[in-house]
Write a structure and sequence with these properties.
The protein is of the alpha/beta class. The protein has one domain: Ribonuclease Z/Hydroxyacylglutathione hydrolase-like (Metallo-beta-lactamase, Chain A, 4-Layer Sandwich), CATH 3.60.15. Helix content is 25%, strand content 19%. It has eight helices and 14 strands. The strands form two sheets. The protein has a seven-stranded mixed β-sheet with strand order 6-5-4-3-2-1-14, with helices on one face. Strand 7 and strand 8 form a beta hairpin. The radius of gyration is 20 Å and the shape is globular.
């Protein structure tokens, strides 16, 4: 085989392998009616703030990452209660955006990830810097899982497969993600649009709500599935899980529809550099403002201290949150230790 033929053959193999990998990793393109946030091919934010083309590579070339210890050794938290009822509501920070919400004798996990990396690869990609706050084997029976969007740190296929095998929970996610999950053997997912709801039982429902963010798992599927948060409504109150979000009018819209909100779970990490992260991640001060706008009785912080995803250091979100809380005189926004629960 001549040199040109070898190059051509290598190109064919490489191209075929890339196509297979793209199909394996990418989300199927959602198809449905045009709405105020879907143009028939791609989803879009209600507030038009977005990054300039090439901004990711500019960030990579100019990064000044804050300090993260290589590993934070921590004992797991206590085994959670099996059920919480009688009008009580309890939330446990596992870590990152994985929260265990217990209400009306239902156990609900948000964006669960127990994997070592948030990546399509076992040996490459952001690696956790601390163990999960609750051991997987210590979880109570999981009745439902909500998945806010398809980024690897929020939609973790290995964890969802483990949950399906052991607990067979009901999965609720945003439009476009159900077909992706079914492709990977998870076929019990209900996908819903913003402001649509599904019932978990006769008393508890889950409603998809807007967020300011984006979606992609590969090169070809940017914004072809939806992102958002969730409101869990029960007789004992409403809990709001923000997922990932930049600042936007959606916080006020959620408050208009769902006040009073008993509990808000709000992200505070991966907020630097602000010129790059602002459109998609609120910072700690904006999280405090979201708490105020939502009118939440109690808020708890999440999305920090586990995966090094932005330029903020491991402790920086907590330090900035403490400053914002002191300046605003808010005493109902709490930081939980990893693996620790709190009744709200």
């Amino acid at each position: 085989m001549g040199k040109l033929a070898r190059i051509a053959a290598a190109g064919i193999v490489t191209g075929a392998a890339a196509a297979i990998a793209e199909r394996l990793f990418a989300s199927p393109h959602y198809r449905g009616p045009v709405t105020d946030h879907f143009d028939g091919r791609h989803f879009q934010n209600l507030d038009p703030a977005w990054r300039e083309q090439g901004s990711f590579w500019k960030w990579q070339a100019t990064r000044v990452p804050g300090f993260w210890p290589k590993w934070i050794e921590a004992e797991p938290g206590p085994k959670p209660q099996e059920r919480v009822g009688g009008g009580r509501m309890r939330v446990t920070l596992v870590n990152h955006a994985t929260m265990l919400l217990q209400v009306e004798n239902l156990n609900i996990l948000t964006d669960p990830i127990w994997s070592e990396r948030c990546s399509p690869f076992a040996a490459v990609g952001p690696r956790r810097h601390r163990p999960p706050g609750i051991r997987f084997r210590d979880l109570p029976p999981i009745d439902a899982v909500v998945v806010s969007h398809n980024h690897y740190d929020h939609l973790d296929l290995p964890t969802l497969h483990r949950l399906q095998w052991k607990h067979a929970p009901r999965i609720v996610t945003q439009l476009g993600n159900g077909r992706f999950l079914a492709r990977h053997g998870i076929r019990n997912a209900a996908e819903i649009d913003w402001w649509q709801s599904v019932d978990l039982d006769a008393r508890v429902s889950v409603t998809s709500v807007p967020a300011q963010h984006f979606c992609a798992r590969a090169i070809s599927d940017r914004n072809t599935a939806l992102w958002g948060g969730f409101v869990i409504s029960a007789p004992s109150g409403r809990a709001y899980f923000a997922g990932d979000s930049g600042w936007g009018h959606h916080f006020a819209h959620i408050a208009d529809r769902f006040a009073p909100i008993r509990l808000a779970m709000l992200p505070i990490g991966a907020f630097l550099p602000r010129w790059f992260m602002r459109p998609v991640h609120i910072d700690p001060a904006e999280a405090v403002e979201a708490h105020r706008v939502l009118g939440a009785e109690t808020s708890v912080a999440m999305h920090y201290g586990t995966f090094h995803l932005g330029d903020d250091g491991e402790q920086q979100p907590l330090d900035e949150l403490a400053k914002a809380l002191a300046a605003s005189h808010v005493d109902s926004f709490h930081v939980l230790e990893h693996g620790v629960g709190r009744e709200v």
